[in-house]
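Supplementary Note 3. Input sequence used for the single-chain structure prediction.
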Amino acid sequence: MSELRNELEDILSRYESATFNFFKWRFESTLAQKVVLAIGFACLTGLLAQFRFYLPFTPVPVTGQVFAVLLSGVILGKWYGGLSQGFYAGIGAAGVPWFAGMTGGAGILTGVTGGYIIGFIAAAMLIGWFTDRYVSARSFRSMFVLMAAGVAVIYLFGVIQLSLVLGVGAQKAIELGALPFIGADIYKALIAAAIATAVMPKSAYGNELDSK
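The predicted structure, written as discrete structure tokens, is reproduced below.
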């Protein structure tokens, strides 16, 4: 039993060291390396966008994009998490068919779902700012609150544009563009928070404000 415990402690120690080394490397890496990571997360967002289904009463699909958006802020930090979603929006608007349903083009950004895609950028930046700046933000409870806040930001952008495009009031836009998705997105936020808590180092690797 003692040997098993020691082996488990050794595995845990090596895992914690590996996660710390990755985030330390990411913090200190070159601009080119960070841009490559951002492009990688843009590709992941595009891939998860294809996991979608439509509800009969709303033009907005349920997709896997939100999951990638939430984690991009955690893994890449404020600026490059936001950049990854900026790449996703910009490259998709240029015509690469990686929006939901293998679609692309600027018309998607100006359509009923375009606000959500713009919201992806803001959500990733919000999550990235807190996780990079505060060690205390890396507990499961704090991570879940951050993920939920990120989802709320996406809804805010999405519902505003949905209201403008469809010409409906705020209440109707919320009924179409937010309420049907809350349950699924809370579930995504819980999973993303669990993963983030597992991979984020619990000690400072950069310029954390609460480590000094």
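The radius of gyration is 18 Å. The beta strands are 52-53, 62-63.
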